[in-house]
Amino acid sequence: MSLKQLDEVSYFKLNNEINRPVDGQIPLHKDKEALAAFFQENVEPNTMIFGSTKEKIDYLIEHDFLEEEFIRNYSIEFIDSLYTFLEEQNFEFKSFMAAYKFYSQYALKSNDGTQYLERYEDRVAFNALYFAEGNEQLALDIADEMIHQRYQPATPSFLNAGRKRRGELVSCFLLQVTDDMNSIGRSINSALQLSRIGGGVGISLNNLREGGAPIKGYEGAASGVVPVMKLFEDSFSYSNQLGQRQGAGVVYLNVFHPDIEMFLSTKKENADEKIRVKTLSLGLTVPDKFYELARKNADMYLFSPYSVEKEYGVPFSYLDITKEYDNLVANPKIRKTKIKARDLENEISKLQQESGYPYIINIDSANRQNPIDGKIIMSNLCSEILQVQQPSAINDRQEYETLGTDISCNLGSTNIPNLMNSRDFGKSVRTMTRALTYVTDASNIEVVPSIKNGNDLNHTIGLGAMGLHSYFAKNQMEYGSPESLDFTNIYFMLLNYWTLVESNNIAKERGESFHNFENSDYAKGTYFDKYVTGEFTPQFDKVKELFTGIFIPTAEDWANLRDAIKKDGMYHQNRLAVAPNGSISYINDTSASIHPITRLIEERQEKKIGKIYYPAPYLNNDTLPYYKSAYDMDMRKVIDVYATAQQHIDQGMSMTLFMRSEIPEGLYEWKDTPKQTTRDLNILRHYAFHKGVKSIYYIRTFTDDEEEIGSNSCESCVI
Where is each Ribonucleotide reductase large subunit domain found (predicted)? Predict the structure, then answer.
């Protein structure tokens, strides 16, 4: 059966039978049958066979599928031994979805698309060899983490590592625009280039003067942020990797910007076509002061970035609005307009109900918890990257007079259920840190100098996690329960500890720390105060049992680490971030990120193929009661889990809130009607803010309709 003739296969039919209960039970065995049929009918007959590892690698190099340079860092004898190790692990996909996703989206294929040139073991081997850069032991260690699916590089890294014809290894980028035409023009060019080479692009428009602001003394000349948004949207639509994927971008605006209401209007369903943005994502940077004014139902003033920068001498993004708010209101030199804070809050919630946007970045919370000298002003396309930036200054020749620092995201993820089974938790995390370090070291985005400069100076990475709900269910813990929060606390504390250890080791080896380390809370030692004075050990017997055999650092261990870092530094400015990692989690046979699952049997629409069904990992009679759908869960439990993890994560997390249009009775004590209202979202947003959560990604609203009946009926089945 050719890859291009898939009309007579049985595996789609078998997989679809999962969604048809038999005698009140979910026939999970049908997914195993679909998996076996997929290999028998698709993978095995269409995989190119080679006589040896050397023959395969030589073929891939000769036909421009594989880069030669990284392979030549190793002897063929070592590569053979690496392959022998991988074969001995007897890796098997656990679900049809996992295998289908890998072979359809990640495995190398022949130029005509009719043959597979890689198995999972090959992709793991090439990742390990590539990231280890000639270090044989590190290559073995990375391969060990990946073949047991304890570590998963982000999609761009996993997909592209070692390939001759590839995109970049990084996931996304962050740019800020300053208030002049040169910066706008250069940023549009940067967006075009970054969208071309891969990854989504986040753009801060906070500094742009509002519509009607003066230009060189002429009153009412500026057009505001919306026309610039349209320019960026057109840029992303045009620069789409030769039609392989739609360019993706998000624009951020501060809630105290005078164009905020027009900015939000661009996403409304009934917006005029002249201002509507269809494909661009929206995000808000929200200072603490907004929550205070909204809570008091007070007036709020919106301040002109032009007059703020003229008065304070810094771009609007870099002003602490919460601290300076009263001074801004009182200063007659600051142009301002007045609206009701509660009205704006309701508009935000209405738009979130309609579209899921805007993302929310609690910018003061992010900076309050930031150990790095400098200011965080924005986030990325998925709201988990929070790093300090410096603005650039560009002259009329489009040259950098001052080269600032913009951001590229180098991401990977731990698979929680599998990492908890590691023989050595610390070694696993240290190995992952090394693999990610290669990505940041190898990144060289010369086409956007501010991105390259930020990466070269700061060596940032973002190690995250997936499979938290799967782990809870597997170990019979309710999502959001005290035991689950206890586990979350210790797990992310350990990620923090071991990435700090390894960042310190790398700094010591290389004699190099990230730029401006000496002014960070790490160098001062104050970052470690809560670990040295507090107690971070499991509190519940069940959680203590889960961490049996895993090293838990004591206050003395933390004090020793603090002293080592003060002495020898840290290589990475940032280390941790939890991405949404949706697609890649299927290959890992685990739940996405650290949020709850949405359905026991998830339904995916796969382009021309149709629907594919994915049962929750570890689903059986014992785990069923612990797999409550996110849409039926009190979102304060989700916020509690994220807030618990957040105290250990130096960047952010892509926290999605899941709502039903008709909210189940008794879920929220303030409800007197089942219909979802803006008040519900307002309350939850304030709750997240008070819990210290730095960002809110999408708001997902589920509306019951005929297309959802099938999977809904599965929710009530007994296995």
Answer: 558-580
| CA atoms of 297 and 643, how far apart (whole Å) | 26
Q: Which of 1-10, 164-173, 238-247, 596-605 has the lowest mean pLDDT?
A: 238-247
Active site residues per annotation: 380, 382, 384
Strands 699-702 and 657-660: parallel
CATH code for residues 172-407:
3.20.70.20
DSSP letters along 404-418, please?
Answer: -B-EEE-EEEEEHHH
Residue matched to tokens 């709502």 = 659
| Residue from 43, 55, 101 nearest 590 by CA | 101
Find tokens 């030692």 and name the residue. Answer: 525
Write down the pTM of the prediction: 0.95
The alpha carbons of the chain give a radius of gyration, in whole angstroms, of 26
Q: Does the domain at residues 11-167+408-444+465-568 carry the CATH identifier 3.40.1400.10?
A: no
Domain boundaries, the chain: 11-167+408-444+465-568, 172-407
Q: Is 609 helix (H, G, I), strand (E, B) or coil?
A: coil
- Residue 79 pairs in a beta bridge with none
Q: Quote the distance between the C-alpha of residue 235 and its chain's center.
A: 23
Confirm if 389 and 377 have CB atoms less than 8 A apart: yes
Task: Quick: pLDDT tens for 546-605.
Answer: 999 999 999 999 999 999 999 999 999 999 999 998 789 999 999 999 999 999 999 888
3-class SS at 474? helix
Q: Do domains 11-167+408-444+465-568 and 172-407 have the same CATH topology?
A: yes
| Pair 477, 490: CB distance under 8 Å | no
